[in-house]
Amino acid sequence: MSVAVEIKNFSFWYGTKQALTDISVAVQPKLITAFIGPSGCGKSTLLRSVNRMNDLIPKTRHAGDIELFDRSVYAPDTDVVALRRRIGMVFQRPNPFPKTIFDNVAYGPRMNALCAKRELADRVEDALRRAALWDEVADRLDDLGTGLSGGQQQRLCIARALANDPEILLLDEPCSALDPIATQHIEELLLQLKNEVTIVIVTHNLHQAARIADETAFFYLGELVEFGRSEDLFTRPQNPRTEAYVTGRFG
């Protein structure tokens, strides 16, 4: 099977400030890959480069390449809208639209004409079930999504991403604003979803990475320090800087 996301000698600049230096990582399909490291180490910049969200920031540039299933996301004929449909994105803080629960999930399929109108309700239900939210909201789909609890809102945002049938799901600190119970729900959900979709998660929570990630990449000052199986990286790190970070001696 092809590598899901292959990052090749990738560097990135915000104006004159270099945020990433010569990063190479191969993200395998149907696994959870975690990006860890101190604040400002470049992990979110790299995540947002995969679906080219950084294109929206003025005066940025990159070198190297990122391939999605063997095709460059920077190819001249890339349809960026279609690319972002294939790569779902969930942000640090829940950001439901000021619409009903139903319309939050239906938004992408409607905009992208992914299904017939008569099939939309089934697609919304399926996405909410996959996000482990259906049983909690089935009888109030006409309520505003913003009225849900924080953990429910984040699962709604995951359902909204899943409704587009993405191949990759990117999550940028998805539990940082949630309590421990809501965090547990999200983690259990991601462990279920990895059977269907490739997941890349940025997290400051080392325990979270150790619990749910199959592979982990440790970044420091814009460089990739170490990448490998999470079990090995957390218990037998090869680099002294990795060991210092995972044991809490810096970061």
Keywords:
10 strands, 4-stranded antiparallel beta sheet, 251 residues, Rossmann fold, 25% strand, alpha/beta
Can you characterise this structure?
This protein is α/β, with parallel strands linked by helices. It has a domain at 5-95 and 166-246: Rossmann fold (3-Layer(aba) Sandwich). It has helices at 43-50, 80-86, 101-111, 120-130, 134-137, 150-162, 180-193, 206-212, 230-235, 240-246, and strands spanning 5-14, 17-27, 32-36, 60-68, 71-72, 87-90, 168-172, 198-202, 215-220, 223-229. A six-stranded mixed sheet has the order 6-7-8-3-9-10, with helices on both faces. Strands 2-1-4-5 form a four-stranded antiparallel sheet, covered by helices on one side. The longest helix is centred in the last third of the chain and has 14 residues, at 180-193.
Strand content: 25-35%
Termini distance?
36 Å
Query: The CATH topology of one domain is what?
Result: Rossmann fold
Kindly report the name of the CATH homologous superfamily of one domain: P-loop containing nucleotide triphosphate hydrolases
Mean pLDDT: 94
Largest sheet: 6 strands, mixed
Helical content stands at 25-40%
How many helical stretches? 10
> Helix and strand string, N-terminal first?
EEEHEEHEHHHHEHEHEEHH
What is the number of strand segments?
10
> CATH top level of one domain?
Alpha Beta
The largest sheet has its strands arranged as 6-7-8-3-9-10
Q: Give the CATH architecture of one domain.
A: 3-Layer(aba) Sandwich
Secondary-structure-derived class: alpha/beta
Gross geometry: globular
